[in-house]
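Quality-control log, excerpt.
Job 1 of 2 completed; input and output follow.
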Amino acid sequence: MRLLLAEDDPKLLKSLIHIFEANKFAVDGVMNGKDAFFYAQSGEYDGLVLDIMMPGLDGIEVLKRLRKEGVTAPALFLTARTEVSQRVEGLDAGADDYLPKPFSSSELLARVRAMLRRKDNYMHDLLTYNGMVLNRSTYELVYNGSTQPLNCKELQIAEMLLQQPNGIISIEQFMTHIWGWNADVDTSVVWVHISNLRKKIDTIKAPVEIRFVRGAGYKLEDKQ
């Protein structure tokens, strides 16, 4: 397994590299956020271990940018910041785990091994159809460098459509999956969100469209 380790304390970085290498990991170590982002973009790593407080870019910003670029390697944050709000911020940025300093080497290794085991069942953040990408981590539609943010319901609708391109999804399926069986919501709400989603697809000029199939539902297909 190959890890990228980012830590701005040179003594701690050297110690951590020794710990991982002694436990059969291949490790690249960097001391700032800019280098962490550059190295991780390669996609060559099975996991990322990132300090939050780093010069240049902090660990949270590094991970946000990596997730936006489509890098899905699982990530563990190391930090002295133990407040709940910062833990939440790190996890919301796309991290898989969080280990406050100081920590024992045995706990660090156990956390990293658990993170890498989950990698086998990792749900990919990106769904793609005909060049259009849905980034489930950042709630964005992307095509050819153009980006449109989505709200929660638009994301869920887009997710269903991209998971079944060219397949018809009924209004009832949308309602059940997104709003639930007993939701007191008019079915017209589906049309409203799909209408907004169509506008956003048009804005990024993606070569796909959401077509209404009378009496059946909606389908995502190539633009005619």
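Job 2 of 2 completed; input and output follow.
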Amino acid sequence: MYPYIHLGPLTIGTFGLMLWLAAVCAGYVLHLNFRRYHVQADAISVVAFVTVLGVIGAKLWHVLEDPATLLHYPAATLFDRAGFAWYGGLIAGILTLMWQGRAAKVGALGMLDLAAPAAAVGYGVGRIGCFTSGDGDYGIPTKLPWGVSFPHGLVPTMQRVHPTPIYELIGALVIAAILWKRGRRNPGEITGEYLVLSGVARFLVEFIRINPRIYFGMSNAQVASIGSMIIGIALILWARRHAAARTERAAAVT
């Protein structure tokens, strides 16, 4: 693939370029969601904060997975252009959105719900950057006709492998469509559904990823995916029970 684009003396990393495009796409989807629910907030500034802090969180998660390397080569590890972990970005993004939800007066869970379809789109588009840069997020060898090789990738391989970033792009767009159609539910419910759906998608794709198996034959991402699904289910149940209790209290008052 093409990890860098060279324009004379200027070198542009395709991962960074696609990350920018992912932020733009996510910002547009969030803007549309704000507009259809008449939310008075600036989608561009929301996405800008989430993107910056999400990248920092993704990098920190990745480097902390291998503390020995971080201790021996701190500068090289922290400033390496490769190596970002989705769940680190997710946690940082969630905390940032909760803070911005309070500022926008839609509530922490309300902002998370509004941002869920945008997060799915942004994640999917961002995965194209992993594909173009060949940063090692590809899958195991395959003989399928759409298998690809990454001879010039950041983590090169001459074998034809599963293009897992493309699989994740497709899955993310499907998730975004589902969440968009669901609209606004009980506060926190859409966020819970996003955590479940994205957790299932990531858990499944890890079976054909090259990530090492660490816990009970599962990769680190699969363990995190299970955690995401559990939290998502708990959040859905909590949101529904909380809404039902609120309805009962309102009925009792009247």
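Post-run check on job 2. The chain has a mean pLDDT of 89.
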